[in-house]
Amino acid sequence: MNGNDRLYHIGFGRSDLGDDPPRIALLSGDPERARLIAQTALRGARVLSENRGLHSSVGTLPNGAPILSATSGMGAPSLSIVVNELVQVGVRTIIRVGTSGSIQLHIPPGSIVISSAALCRQGAADDIAPREFPAAADPFVTVALIEAARAAGVEYFAGVTASVDTFYEGQERTGSANPHLLRRLRGITDEYRRLNILNYEMEAGTLFKMGLVYGFAAGCVCGIVAQRTASEAIIVERKAVAIERAIAVAVRAAIALTASPA
Ligand SMILES: O=P(O)(O)O[C@H]1O[C@H](CO)[C@@H](O)[C@H]1O
Ligand SMILES: O=c1cc[nH]c(=O)[nH]1
């Protein structure tokens, strides 16, 4: 590793990426997922850093295109730092590969949600753009994810995601250290359900705004690990399949997005 131009948080720089630096990254909240993607889906994967627990690897897709598997950490403040630094090292397409809780009856644990846009209730995003600025995914990345899900035969749902700052309070969980929720949060899940919002997670909205403002293409696919119309709990038995499907779809989409024109 050269390391002279290493970015402070991600722990690597352009000079660590070789002669053909990746312009696309798969970004997981969980470093274990980033490592799993590198080990199972990338060819010739090489670990770049584990700075602050944020695993980053570089490898190639089956079509030979270079790609990063990186970690955002949980929540928009951490994601905003990692994404800012990924853009500084030359990344121009970022697909978030996450986990999420369904708020619609028809979206079961084990399925995946592809976010076309987000209701962005995230403080970090206010430092990126005005609150009214759209949190929309890149249409080409979103279509690539949908086509990948169809081709893989994976049960998927596409639509609007609620991106919030907290897992417990902001997602209206009362089974936590503080069962008392602020009045403005009581009933919010039902309100979102009636607005046809599909799911809760904690990063996509800020990622989408950053993409539109900083000039990179952003998308998001999440494996569904909770069904909030039934319970607040994570359905642990469906987590592995949900993540496996989200990864498979993200990798297929990345292949399509990096294919050289015929
Ligand atoms: O599994 P990841 O990608 O971390 O995504 C989801 O999981 C975390 C909460 O459990 C939040 O980061 C949320 O967005
Ligand atoms: O319910 C859930 C599950 C995963 N991630 C979230 O943010 N919420």
UniProtKB/TrEMBL annotation:
SUPFAM superfamilies recorded: Purine and uridine phosphorylases
Keyword Transferase: yes
Gene Ontology terms: cellular component: cytosol
Domain Nucleoside phosphorylase, first and last residues per copy: 23-250
Gene3D superfamilies associated with the record: Nucleoside phosphorylase domain
MF annotations from Gene Ontology: uridine phosphorylase activity
GO biological process: nucleoside catabolic process
Highest taxon of the lineage: Bacteria
Reactions catalysed, as given in the entry: uridine + phosphate = alpha-D-ribose 1-phosphate + uracil
Enzyme Commission number(s): 2.4.2.3
Pfam families registered for this protein in UniProt: PNP_UDP_1 (PF01048)
Keywords carried by this UniProt record: Glycosyltransferase, Transferase
Family listed: Belongs to the PNP/UDP phosphorylase family.
PANTHER family cross-referenced by the UniProt entry: FI09636P-RELATED (PTHR43691:SF11), URIDINE PHOSPHORYLASE (PTHR43691)
Name recorded for this polypeptide: Uridine phosphorylase
Lineage of producing organism: Bacteria, Bacillati, Chloroflexota, Chloroflexia, Chloroflexales
